[in-house]
Amino acid sequence: MFAIIKTGGKQYLVREGDVLLVEKLELDLGAKLDFETMLVADEEGNDVKIGLPNVAGAKVETTIAEHGRADKVAVVKYKPKVRYRRNVGHRQPFTKIKIEKIVA
User: Fold this and answer.
1) Using 50, 70 and 90 to split pLDDT, how confident is the model at 78?
2) Radius of gyration over every alpha carbon of the chain, rounded to an integer in angstroms
3) How high is the pLDDT of residue 42?
4) How far apart are CA 27 and CA 15, in angstroms?
5) Which tens digits make up the pLDDT trace of 40-59?
């Protein structure tokens, strides 16, 4: 069984047992979190439920596994002939969640 959830302005295709990196959530480690699902289907694709916008009664149960920051991304600005150079780094915070159960 798989589902599509929405968090942090993005949509993710998830299955039971998956570990997922999402935008930072302000929750403690080990906390339980339920996501409303937009689409739920079994592995063969026979039993598909599509929500407008969410499937009624369906949810994805998750656990917060870790908080962290991603690898550094270099942001470089350069303009030729005017001695303008900027080099700034950015590390995006994330939350790692574990998909425990999909309830349809």
Assistant:
1) very high
2) 19
3) 76
4) 22
5) 877 777 778 888 888 888 88
Question: Interior CA angle at 27 toward 89 and 18, to 5°?
Answer: 80
Q: Which of 103, 83, 90 is nearest to 14 (CA)?
A: 103
Reading the block at residue 93, the tokens are: 């915070």
d(C-alpha 94, C-alpha 91), whole Å? 9
Both tokens of 19, joined, read 């570990």
Domain residue spans in the chain?
2-103
Cα angle: 40, vertex 27, 66; to 5 degrees:
80
In this structure, the number of other CB atoms found within 10 A of the CB of residue 62 comes to: 25
Give the residues across from 19 on adjacent strands: 98
Integer distance in angstroms from the first to the last C-alpha of the chain? 9
- Measured from the Cβ of residue 60, the count of other Cβ atoms closer than 10 Å reads 27
**pTM, rounded to two decimals:** 0.82
